[in-house]
Specification:
The complex is a heterodimer of chains A (114) and B (112). Chain A is mainly β. Chain A is 0% helix and 46% strand. The radius of gyration of chain A is 13 Å and the shape is globular. Chain B contains no helices and eleven strands.
């Protein structure tokens, strides 16, 4: 597609439920990133996918968070047993292989855990 | 540890009042410094990339400059539509991940 597409744009969930966030990157971009943006905080790196290489999961805050990328394209970020501190905007970005030309971001998914 | 610090946290200007935003960084092996603009409810939008000290980039009322320790985003004669959060990020290549490290941003409000 023309841009990075994320869905849903907003998600309200009850504490303890699982949620799935979806990201559809720009066609031809081999690198895909998930970031989290909390109120008043900078963008926090979560996970990075590059082609068929093993993902870098070093930013995932706990084992309740996981992500996968199928066929080198669409990615899903899953949060199990959601907690109130998981409330944030989850941003997906994609880039050409090296990333040195910058990322293109989606509009994000605003997650609210009540 | 790699770090990006932006100042001020918030800035309020009158329309036409020029100013500068600062981004200071400590990173090993800088491969690029990026400026993004973020409007409420949207993802960051790319503005500029700077790769080496002394480099400058311009776009409309915005000009970005880079030294070995910091970058400035100069805003000349701003308009209300320039109101947004401006994010600075550094790209460091090396280790397991090539990723952008972001500052917390400067919230700019331009009043008519």
């Amino acid at each position: 597609g023309a841009g990075v597409s994320q869905s849903p744009s907003n998600k309200v969930t009850e504490k303890g439920k699982d949620v799935e966030l979806r990201c559809d990157p720009i066609s031809g971009h081999t690198a895909l990133y998930w970031y989290r943006q909390s109120l008043g905080q900078g963008l926090e790196f979560l996970i990075y996918f590059q082609g068929n290489s093993a993902p870098d999961k070093s930013g995932l805050p706990s084992d309740r968070f996981s992500a996968e990328r199928t066929g080198g394209s669409v990615s899903t970020l899953t949060i199990q047993r959601t907690q109130q501190e998981d409330s944030a905007v989850y941003l997906c970005a994609s880039s050409l292989a090296s990333g040195s030309y910058g990322y293109t971001f989606g509009s994000g998914t605003r997650l609210t855990v009540v | 540890e790699d770090q990006v610090t932006q100042s001020p946290e918030a800035l309020r200007l009158q329309e036409g009042e020029s100013s500068s935003l600062n981004c200071s960084y400590t990173v090993s092996g800088l491969r690029g410094l990026f400026w993004y603009r973020q409007d409420p409810g949207k993802g960051p939008e790319f503005l500029f990339t700077l790769y080496s000290a002394g480099e400058e980039k311009e776009k409309e009322r915005l000009k970005a400059t880079l030294t070995k320790k910091e970058s400035f985003l100069h805003i000349t004669a701003p308009k209300p539509e320039d109101s947004a959060t401006y994010l600075c990020a550094v790209y460091r290549r090396g280790g397991a991940t090539n990723k952008l490290i972001f500052g917390t941003g400067t919230l700019l409000a331009v009043q008519p």
